[in-house]
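Worked problem 6 (solution included).
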Amino acid sequence: MAGAGRRGGGSIGRGGQGGRAGKSGSHRKGAAAGSGGQGRKALEGRGATPPAFMRPGHPAQRRAAAQARSAQVDDRPGAPRRGEAGRAEGARTSAGPDARSGAGGARSRRTESDELVVGRNAVVEALRAGVPASTLFIAAGLDFDERLGDARRLASRAGIAVVDSARPDLDRMCGTAPHQGLALSVPAFRYTHPDDLLVRARAGAAGLVVALDGVTDPRNLGAVVRSAAAFGADGVVVPERRAAGVTAAAWKTSAGAAARLPIARATNLARTLTAYAEGGLFVVGLAADADLSLDDLAMATDPLALVIGSEGRGLSRLVEQRCDVTVRIPMAGQVESLNAGVAAGIALAEIARRRRVA
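Solution. The predicted structure is:
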């Protein structure tokens, strides 16, 4: 009988899974002894999940702690003012932990929405043009170059923070862009209203506005802006959707011209061109298959809105319908189309030449 009791699992074994081990043939080692209700508290809930800034180790908690520390800074002579701790933390985040200031203790004021203009020529041109920048980053250990001195001097004169950064930190910040040891943090570009360009064009003897239709490469946009500024255009208008905006790549390609020339963003480019035509501008579109050559454009000396399409698709149907005339650039070779930036430069140079002659 005693053996039968053992085979039937009458005894209680520790470490098993409930009473299943008491059944005949069970593979469990034995039934677990109950806790007598002592583990009941372990089943109770822990309450509501605390907010992020109260969870130890959470990034929001670390930010809240840093803000609390900055708020408790005393007012002793030489003590940092409120908010400087946060700015210093931002400088370490943007330019690396070893970043130091070279302009009177200023720290990086870069935000997440800022763009980076990189490259020595692009940065110096942007500073000379008065780009509303926030921080200039200079890599340490660079060979002498007068552009580095010019950039530091122009930034200091404009009240822009100058941060000396380690080269690896600047590499991480700029990604694959060839920064050449210089990077300028600029806020998001502020566009002009398309109607303001019409006012500027009508104020001159022969106004000129450049419109881009479907140009998606920001480097093409920057090249067009640079050519438009060089040949006396009153501004550039781009569509709001499915088109390139003024990004860091456009800033660099324009070599600072984006700061000197107003750029507008149109919700509906076709409607904007209609308003320009009603305002007294002749709308001229560049098209590779146009019958009229640019050499024969009689209205080159009149107020114009020059429309340039994308390299592959050209002008869209609705935009082409708004054009008073379409012209082609005469070419000797069998080339299907030109780059939008190149085409704009050629057309604007010809229009400027005709106006000088006239």
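Discussion: The longest strand covers residues 208-213.
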